[in-house]
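FIELD: query
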Amino acid sequence: MAAATAPSLHVAGELTNVLYSDVTARDLEWTLASGSATETQTFYICTDSGHFCFVQMLHSNIGWYPTIQFSARFFGDGINTFKSGNMSNFKLSPDRRSATTDGMKIELNSECTKYTVSLVHANELLISFVFERVDRGFKIGEGKTFFGSDKSTGFVEHKFWPKGKVSGNVFINGKPFDLNGVGLFVHALQGMRPHLIATRWNFVDFHSDEVALSMVEFETTPAYGSVKVNQGSLVVKDKLVGVSVKNAVEFLETELDEETGYHIPREINYTWNGKALESEEAFRVNLKIRPQTLMDKIDVLNEIPYVIKKIVQAMVAKPYIYQWYNEATAEVIIGDKPPIIATGKLFNEATFIY
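FIELD: result
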């Protein structure tokens, strides 16, 4: 598919006959790749009380020296707070699977099944939780999509724990909220400057009592054929039922955001298509949403360090991230079984680079 239209792009899952592989202990190591690389570990949490939280640690080699940054959001009960900032004293454990900075820790247990995360930002934000994997993790193919005819230009890599059980707390300006619920963990690595990878990104994290869905999609720049690369997963009753790459994001209706110049979706249709991992039955998921609650519109250049900002601005990129959090309903069809109608919480993002 992609190889026919963009020979300088080598898409994960198309490079071999293996659609997916399990996430191993080595996959969970921080690589700190050289060159213009950015690496993140991100936890997305939907709480039992209907709140949303995400926490991210970022390590970037773009610029003159490494940059370490945190980002965190809590949304719910009338509170919508987003914090980000630089950190110092980044250290890895001997096995490279845990990381600490001044103010933040991400620690993986020896069995590689559970993360313990803590973050303190001034007196405004204190987060502490345990994120325990449900079933297993996965990556598409061997994980990497490569750029360049000889794969040397760069790469993008995503590794997923598609569902986890979460317990913990967050304090916002001293006010406590529990973080008990479920979530998604993503370990991502971009081995080249972000504005050279994609013009658009889409992201989905959906949880109901029975079903969990994830999706990451990016559209490559015209230099690499404007190819849409999509990776998704389906979890049913705490079991990873399927992973898929034949997925789609359709903006059924858009409107112009005059501030940014981007056409923002007013109605979106997400679809997943694949085969169940064990039974090999075909599955299809459809989730249509008219997002009502825009959680945030993030001007990315306002949230990144000065040196990186200048590099991105020089490439005439103006990245914005639109984030929504709403109730949604997904229809899941596996083989000839009756459809599963799952109503839950949907966190979705649309990112525009230029």
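FIELD: remark
The first helix runs from residue 2 to 5.
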